[in-house]
Amino acid sequence: MTPLTIDKHAGTEGAVPPSPAGKAAKGRKRGTAKPYLTGGALLTISVLLIGICAQLVLLSPLQHRAAQSAGFDRLRGELAAGTVAVSQADQQGRLLRPGTPLMLLEIPKLHVRQVVFEGTDSDVLAKGPGHRRDTLLPGQAGTSVLMGRAAAYGGPFGHLDDLTPGDTFRITTGQGRFTFRVLDLRHAGDRAPDAPAAGRSRVVLMTATGPPYLPEGVLRLDADLVGTAADTPALRIVPDSLPAAELPLHGDSVVWWQVVLWLQALAAASAAAVWAWFRWGRRQTWVVFTGLLGAIGLQVAEQVTRLLPNLL
């Protein structure tokens, strides 16, 4: 009788050895969440950076153009009706809300034709140039300050340094059309011109200096009114009393809570996308999460740009 023996190799013929991907999947099932955390963090950072670049370079000019179109339609109607504000308050005596269209700025040499809004924080300057609220309106006796971006959101003041002494530009307000002649340009540390004489009007245009999207300082352009100044109402906002967000090269810190909330949403969506990539499938992940991550990333980017310098 032949003794019973068991072949240790029996039953293994044709068996497929586990693949490296299968081993990795088993390791992920058993072990740590580190691959998900790392992948989620890298995806969050990538989406955020791409979103900021897309917002500043591609989308911001479109948003600026839409805001200018809407502002021009409103301003044109109010100019025709004679209801455009000519002071810091409206016809009911209430302070103008930031973002109110106030005037039309035309610089023929630079091919600039922009609606100017009340206020100078990041949100207002995304629409177009803004009027500093603690100064008079252009054409009134005294000094008015207008601020505009150098690169983002259409960069309406990006070529101010191409103007030279003697060049002229026009500003149309509720008090009429005024022509200003450029005195000179000045950077930080340059001597400011003497204050305008009594009854004379001056406007100062301000923007950022430095490479595009990397502001290094403030450029100022001084221009005096050609002709007689208009009636000048009393200031309602004390000079130099504005919040920091409306000063040159400042961002809007009030939006921090919105940035945090959107970042949390982006991190959660990124973590879900990484989980789906490993557990669900690449094709399904692309279909479901590409649009979602893009939309959240742009929302985060839009809030982050409001934290950046307002003259950017």
Derived structural class: alpha+beta
In spatial order, strands of the major sheet run 1-2-3-4-7-8-6-5
Unreliable parts: 4-16, 19-31
Determine the mean pLDDT. Answer: 88
Helix content: 25-40%
| Tertiary shape | elongated
Total count of strands: 8
CATH class identity of one domain = Mainly Beta
Describe the protein in words.
With 312 residues, the protein is α+β, with helices and mostly antiparallel strands. The protein has a domain at 85-251: Beta Barrel (Sortase, Chain: A). The chain has helices at residues 20-30, 34-81, 122-125, 256-279, 282-307, and strands spanning 101-107, 112-118, 130-131, 142-147, 168-173, 176-186, 201-209, 217-226. It has an 8-stranded mixed β-barrel with strand order 1-2-3-4-7-8-6-5. Helix 2 crosses helix 5 (282-307). The radius of gyration is 29 Å and the shape is elongated.
